[in-house]
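Example 3.2
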Amino acid sequence: MIKTVYRITSIIIALTMIFGIYTSAHASFEPAAVRAQSQAVLAAQTIYYVSATGNDANPGTSSAPFKTIQKAVNTAAAGDTVTVLAGNYAERVTVNRAVVLQAQGTVNMQGFVVSADYVTIKGFTVTTFADLAVGILVNKGGWCDIENNTVQYSTMGGISLQGLPANPSATHDCIVKNNVLYRNGIFGLEIMGQNHLVEGNDISQTIQNNPCNVTYAGATWLDANGILFHGSGHVFRNNKIHDIPFGPEGYTQGTPCSLASLQNLSNDYISDSHTDCFQTFAGDKIAGHDILFDGNSCINVTSSLNLNVAARAFQVEGGAYNLTFINNVVNTNGIANINGARDIRFENNTFVGNPDFAYSTGIYLTNATNVKIRNNVFAYQENGVGSIWPDSISKSSLTAGYNCVYRAGGPPARSPDPGDVWGLNPLFVNMAAKNFRLQSASPCIDKGFNSGIPNDFDGSLRPQGAGFDIGAFEFAAASSILPTFTSTPIPLTATPTASPAPVLPTFTPTPISLTATPTASPAPVLPTFTSTPIPLTTTPTASPAPVLPTATLTSSQPTATSQATTQPPVSETTYDDTYRFFKFSSFWPLVSNSQAYLGKYKYTGTKATSVTLSFTGQSFSVLYAAGPSYGSMDIYIDNQLAGSLNQQSPDLRFQQRWDYPGKLVYGKHTLKLVFTGPVNTMGTLDAVIVR
């Protein structure tokens, strides 16, 4: 937990503006839309090439490439591609236009500062020793795409997307995916702004006191975290945060700013960090809200014996709200501290403490309201308090139960909640190997309730047996042979240089070797299951029959405003949710499920978000998914309210159908669906049928 209201990235921005590093040039801000549709207008016009042996006087063709990446960016027009050939580039690149930057082979460089929409950065190895440097810093811009990069040793953080209170949507609708963040200062990722997808990233060995940090050397607010999250509408899915060790009491001081110093893992650069895998706060940042955390892991993030700096998986404070944590796997000394937050949901997570650490803690609740903690495995929270400890304010609105709670030192102080499995060893497959799946004899199998989360951490459907299992993993016969995590430090193979100068050394590092995540090779493919675990609802039914849901319709019929044209059609046309003329007001994640129309549907958990479709016809129907944790959608036709669609049902149902009750004048019409909540629910769209 950062210990003052002075937060690092805003300081960096102020200083970089003074020293001319920050660029204010940016493309005009546009309303959010579907990424694929928006990027279609930026079809690539020209491909420029960059080679370490090129010349900036060249035209930038494949046969006569530029020498610097910056020259190529400055030459490119919106929609152009810059292909950077393998080599070392001692430059930090400012990007102020919509371009695609693609590394071809191993490209070593010093980072990017982005202030434009539609910027793509893929496949680079970023190493920078500069004071105040963030590896990839996006100051302004929407629909950016940052994938398959390795960012290492950056002084003030790995990748940062901005969005301070003065401009909450400074960055929006970006993808940060499959990046490796290794041994950066303060954080691996800092995500602000709105509606970002953060998926499949690997973060490890974050340090607090980077020897290249000159301006803020020894500052008391420095920390070593995994992901700092602020703003709203984000999805954090399948990220791996691991191996952020505290080391012995005290830390290494006086080492030079060099690759050799940072590569040496015996150098302990953490002194008093309150290390968290995920953290949000207020002050000069926007506390996180309306955010989903699905299928992430937090493993081997350790803490000092000083309880004031204990490490936690989730540190939530500053008025954060509407946060959903599902299918996450945690193995740390502390699980969560929820302070001054509301509408928080923890369901189907596996939380494992340290059986050899007497102060391992569970979830602490302070001034936290409307918190739901159900279907979680709590094991080895040995401090005596155990799994959940609410203060009096938090207790009054707490919903807890169906948790599998085990403490090696005996029952915790708090009494069981309804449906709890109490005091029985959960029987993990191999705790030493960090395989926290359940053995066949686990008491947590078939003892959960239907939380409406259709898939587990591995992407397997729930339930697999007679009932729903407790925790992040649904037991299946093959689960005992599937190891999950490797906790050994990540080896680096780059050859160190003797120079301590804070510039990119002339070395050729090989990609960081990882055993628990996709490698940093170009364009790794995420396993297909990663798109399925979302906070949906309940068990899938066998039949996708289009049953008319309970819908609250207005008494008045809409007035058709369009003029009649030719004879109305006699057939139906079905438009899938990926149809390119749907216009989404923000990021609606796409979910794969075989029972949905064409095997997929979209959802949102942010109130007031909408989707519109213009069509020609005289009537329509809406296909959607329904379940216990779904909310309501208002349906408008030609800007008039046509009805209110309640998507809640006792179990998970697909291809449910809402039929427009009236008949329009045949012609052009505009349909709009608006998600109205309530909090901790979602709205879905599967397809629209036009008649």
